[in-house]
Amino acid sequence: MSAAPAASLRPALPADAETLAALMRASIFALTGDDYDEDQQEAWAAAADDEEAFAAGLAGRLTLVATRDGEPVGFVALADNRVIDLLYVHPEAAGQGVGTLLCDAIEKLAAARGATVLTADASDTALAFFQKRGYVAQSRNSVPRGDVWLGNTTVQKKLGDGAA
């Protein structure tokens, strides 16, 4: 079996909103079933239902898209140069280094823009991924989504080591 082709990065474009919303939904439904029940997944994925609001959210953040053969396979959004607000990888690309590529890039960009710490509210599914990258759990959260509650963990990572 040959390795998957390397992904490349580019800034998100306004025209990406529909595709990235679908990617987010696919990721939630395919990858989080061990940690969240169907009602929780539905409530979580509903954040991408209002495409106009979703597009505005992406536009208001530093958003990078990972692509393979021109097709989006993941994306990351950085809010206020200090919070990884969204990080999703298409289920078919999961475990192939796309999340690592996205996180490496956003951490470097945030540090270059002066950030010394990054935080994220990691889903139970993504928590181990962030911890392997050096993020440390700060608090456990229960987040309301409609009439459903989702658990996640706020994680934090110091950037740099004195080097910009």
From TrEMBL:
InterPro entries from the entry?
Acyl_CoA_acyltransferase (IPR016181), Bact_Acetyltransf (IPR050832), GNAT_dom (IPR000182)
List, alphabetically, the SUPFAM superfamilies matched: Acyl-CoA N-acyltransferases (Nat)
In this chain the N-acetyltransferase domain maps to 15-155
Keyword annotations = Acyltransferase, Transferase
Which PANTHER family does the record match to this protein? AMINOALKYLPHOSPHONATE N-ACETYLTRANSFERASE-RELATED-RELATED
Protein name listed in UniProt: GNAT family N-acetyltransferase
